Amino acid sequence: MALTINTNMTSLSAIQGMNTNSQALSKTFQRLISGSRINNAGDDPAGFSISTRMTAQIQGSNIAVQNAQDAVSATQVADSAMKETMSALQQMHDLVVSAGGAGVSASDRTNIANEVNGLIQEIQRIATSTTFNNKQLLTGSYLQKIQVGANQGQFMQVQISAVSAGAIGMSYAAAASLKPFDSTITTALSVNLSQDLQAITNAMNKVSNIRANLGSVQNRLNDTITGLNSLVSATTDARSRITDTDYASEAANLAQEQIKQQVGASILAQANQSSVSILTLLKG
Fold first, then answer.
1. Which of 29, 126, 221, 248 has the lowest tally of Cβ within 10 angstroms?
2. Cα 231 to Cα 224: distance, rounded to the nearest angstrom
3. Is the pLDDT of residue 175 over 60?
């Protein structure tokens, strides 16, 4: 090999190798510090693309879980309100039955009718005042499409039927039939009493059916939440295998690159000494 001064290929090769080792060492340090194997798209283009989609899936699913939980909360509020409505209907039922007692006077029946009307007003108040995030739940206007997934088209429709006094067949007119119970015609009493009891029973059945349907919606939402949480867990685990740093492997790489760097520095020092031999020739 020729001895030259202007071009020291051995030194250049050593420098090039040290630069390469330095880049690898820097990447290893970055992975150890960040805990992530992929810190930019250049580290692993395919892995970066996959992990990005997985991150979108995970974050979207987490938000979908929140949406479903909010929907469950809304249905729970509605169910609690309907429980009070059922309580009022039960009281109405008891009052109407008591109005048919042998010792009940006309004024007693009037008082009972007034109390029944008061309960009807309470049912109406419950229907109009039960809200969730300023949205009425029991007036028949609640219809929401809940996004329960990270992707397009993954939604669930939640609708709550009207539980207002009119919607369940409880109007002020229904209780008014109690007032003419002072009639001397005994058949009129039994007919009016029967009609009122039937109307209340029908109302209780309607509310029970609405609550049952709402319960099935709650179960679907809870199942959806469970499924989404499982999906998030599995997807997070899969993303971890792609993006997270394997510290045992990177620690081994660190030791290897540090040794290479030290060897490169030693070789560079020796390569720079090769030019000194030219002086020895010239001194000849």
1. 248
2. 10
3. no
Cα–Cα distance, 111 to 124 (Å, whole number): 20
135 has which bridge partners? 132
Q: Taking every pair of C-alpha atoms in the chain, what is the biggest distance, in angstroms?
A: 149
Q: For 256-278, what is each residue's pLDDT tens digit? A: 877 777 777 777 777 666 666 66
**Burial level of 178, CB count in 10 A (0-12/13-18/19+)?**
buried
Instruction: For residue 82, give every residue at least 6 positions away whose Cβ sits within 8 Å of its Cβ, in sequence order, or none.
Output: 138, 163, 207, 210, 211, 214
Q: 83-115 burial string, b = 16+ CB within 10 Å, else e?
A: eebbebbebbbebbeebbeeeeeeeebbebbee
- Encode pLDDT of 212-236 as tens digits: 999 999 999 999 999 999 999 999 9
- CATH topology for 58-241? f41 fragment of flagellin, N-terminal domain (1.20.1330)
pTM confidence score: 0.75
How confident is the model over 70-84, as pLDDT tens digits?
A: 999 999 999 999 999
